[in-house]
Amino acid sequence: MKTLAVKQSEKRISTSIKLNKKNRDFAKDFFKKYNLTLSDGINIFLAKVVMDKKLPFELEIPNKETIKAIREAENGDLIYCGDNITDVMKELRS
Question: Cα-flanking dihedrals φ and ψ of residue 42, to 5°?
Fold first, then answer.
């Protein structure tokens, strides 16, 4: 098992990144539960990328059909919206 140890002699630098506010706020609260700062969490992510030389999760690229459905949903162009789950399921089965 690999460890994510950081040498005391490694110089830390300051950087500026743009983050989605909602994601940043959620991540700050999430890391706080582990007594970590947002900076600690980002450094853990970067250390894992460096250590494994890959992303620490699978990245999937959506196909054309999925991209079309995402755009339709974002634009509010839903094909069908029922009043309840029973109606939706009937429509899906037809």
Answer: -65, -40
0.70 cut: is pTM over it?
A: no
Spell out the SS3 assignment of 5-72: CCCCCCCCCCCCCCCCHHHHHHHHHHHHCCCCCHHHHHHHHHHHHHHHCCCCCCCCCCCHHHHHHHHH
Question: Is residue 44 a part of any domain in this protein?
Answer: yes
Range of the domain at 88: 64-93
Summarize pLDDT for 29-77 with one digit per residue, the tens: 999 999 999 999 999 999 999 999 999 999 888 899 989 888 888 887 7
- Please report whether residue 40 resides in a domain: yes
Give the number of domains in the chain: 2
Q: Of 54, 24, 52, 20, whose CA–CA distance to 39 is shortest?
A: 24
Instruction: Note the residue count of the chain.
Output: 94
